[in-house]
Design brief:
Strand order of the largest sheet: 1-2
Distance between the termini: 25 Å
Largest sheet: 2 strands, antiparallel
Strand content: under 5%
Shape: globular
Structural class: mainly alpha
Mean pLDDT: 92
Length: 263
């Protein structure tokens, strides 16, 4: 599922590269300016070619304007989501047990937390989204509501292509540009994606080991403490705010993980 609240928006904006393509106005002129600025940031021509022929998507703007404040209670949000996924999550814990042990040894994040997040985000990779991410990001970058943020995300998406992790055709995801089985925004993909299966690509669309290890790497980078627990009130529970700003979502992750751990 698409994140209810985009991860770390303030951090993304504050750390985004300086891009100054003028939002609004003619879309093609905007893309031409952005292309020049991305080239100046080191994006090679073969990656910039992914912008050839890109057009704005009015559906993305409509969805962006319809976003509302999240009002569901923990019980309303969590109960059926956990119940519907619990049996499959337990199977995933068994199927990927060896990988989860290796990830916990390296990053300190227990498998139950990783499986809970994976299940909540995309139903264990089943629902990663079908929107062409580069088109979505170009549309949102051109729009003036959050242009600076999404120019940074579009640049990061091109960097993903440039380093060979994904091809432009593979970059399909949620309408707001989240990618892969963990629904990483491209800037988080660049910073935290891990090649855990050792094939030379950080592939969060096709690779379960890469996906689970990348979730763990993000959490560790924000201060996850090995062996520190994850229930509400713990330091690790606070780290979950860097995954999703909604307290209800954080509590759902913890409750789901607790069920997987036999609690």
């Amino acid at each position: 599922m698409t994140k209810l609240i985009l991860v770390c928006i303030a951090l993304i904006i504050s750390s985004a590269p300086s891009l100054a393509a003028q939002c609004g106005g003619d879309f093609d002129a905007f893309i031409d300016t952005f292309r020049r600025e991305a080239a100046a940031q080191g994006v090679p021509a073969r990656a910039l070619a992914a912008l050839d022929g890109v057009t704005p998507d009015p559906k993305v703007i409509s969805l962006d304007r319809r976003q509302g404040v999240f009002h569901q209670s923990f019980e309303q949000f969590a109960t059926h989501r956990i119940a519907e996924r619990l049996a499959k999550a337990q199977r995933m814990m068994q199927t990927h047990a060896a990988t989860l042990r290796r990830i916990e040894q390296q990053f300190g994040v227990p498998g139950s937390v990783l499986i809970a997040i994976w299940g909540l985000e995309t139903d264990f990779g089943v629902d990663i989204g079908k929107s062409p991410v580069l088109r979505s990001l170009a549309t949102l970058a051109h729009d003036c509501r959050r242009s600076a943020m999404f120019q940074g995300e579009l640049l990061a998406a091109l960097q993903i292509v440039a380093r060979g992790d994904l091809s432009p055709a593979e970059m399909r995801g949620a309408w707001a540009g989240e990618l892969g089985q963990a629904q990483f925004l491209p800037s988080n993909y660049i910073k935290y994606a891990v090649d855990f299966d050792g094939n030379g690509r950080r592939d969060l669309i096709h690779s379960v080991p890469d996906t689970l290890a990348s979730i763990a790497n993000l959490l560790k980078s924000f201060g996850w403490a090995a062996g520190g627990g994850y229930r509400e009130g713990s330091a690790n529970f606070s780290v979950l705010t860097n995954w999703n700003k909604s307290t209800v979502y954080q509590k759902t992750i913890a409750a789901f993980a607790e069920r997987l751990d036999g609690g």
